[in-house]
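Quick one:
INPUT:
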């Protein structure tokens, strides 16, 4: 068995009960395509092989990818993709495997699961949530603090840019905790498993980009009132009355602070600001 590599932020989930619990959270059906990112030694894969229509295993590590291909590469219902999930064309890979699973040109329903390396949690999460068509469900095991920020409600101490970015794309919930002692090597932090249900009415890429721009401006000044942020942030630079009227047009108190603004309101505000620039 290949040893964990610190350079790839590898920690392998060795508790079989938690492996099954995480796979069960995916809710995969017999005809589904399941994409597992960072398949490792196949800890989750073993609970999925033969239980779903097709299993796509994405693994960056040379040795682990070779081991996965040796174990399951001769199965028609398993594909092993030796690639970096942050760089490979995941949409093309999903489409190819979806057709193999019997989905035709429109593709088969698919779901995504990953025990995410801590170092790439945010970019990988958004890479998955930006897939089109979106997966039916995404199950990610991530660092506890990060998972709680993904699912945080407005007004809580964990609420911030990550919360907004995830929640305009999906409905997240923390399903359960995962002890650090369930991994080898043992990490220094606790984990949680997060279930994300992608929104069918999610905004397009341009709107998502505009929200990211707005939340970065706001949460880097989170102690300030929204009207003052819109006036002082160089990204916007609105006049005093202009900022107040914009807030009031969205039924927002101009004195509200960013941590009290909902994801849906951030989206409406970002669209209004970009429309004003056009």
């Amino acid at each position: 068995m290949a040893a964990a590599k610190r350079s790839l932020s590898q920690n392998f989930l060795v508790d079989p009960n938690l492996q099954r619990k995480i796979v069960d959270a995916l809710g995969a059906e017999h005809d589904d395509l399941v994409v597992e990112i960072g398949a490792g030694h196949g800890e989750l894969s073993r609970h999925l092989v033969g239980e779903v229509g097709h299993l796509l295993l994405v693994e960056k590590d040379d040795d682990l990818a070779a081991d996965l291909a040796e174990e399951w590469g001769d199965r028609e219902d398993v594909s092993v993709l030796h690639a970096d999930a942050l760089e490979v064309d995941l949409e093309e890979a999903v489409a190819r495997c979806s057709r193999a699973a019997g989905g035709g040109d429109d593709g088969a329903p698919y779901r995504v699961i990953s025990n995410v390396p801590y170092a790439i949690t945010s970019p990988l999460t958004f890479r998955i949530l930006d897939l089109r068509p979106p997966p039916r469900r995404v199950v990610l095991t991530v660092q506890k603090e990060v998972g709680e920020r993904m699912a945080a409600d407005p007004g809580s101490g964990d609420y911030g840019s990550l919360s907004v970015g995830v929640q305009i794309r999906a409905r997240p919930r923390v399903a359960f905790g995962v002890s650090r002692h369930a991994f080898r090597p043992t990490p220094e932090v606790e984990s949680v498993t997060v279930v994300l249900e992608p929104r069918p009415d999610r905004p397009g890429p341009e709107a998502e980009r505009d929200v990211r721009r707005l939340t970065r401006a706001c949460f880097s000044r989170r102690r300030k009132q929204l009207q003052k942020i819109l006036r002082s942030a160089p990204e916007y630079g609105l006049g005093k009355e202009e900022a107040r009227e914009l807030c009031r047009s969205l039924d927002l108190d101009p004195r509200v602070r960013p941590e009290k603004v909902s994801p849906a309101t951030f989206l409406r505000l970002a669209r209004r600001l970009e429309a004003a620039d056009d």
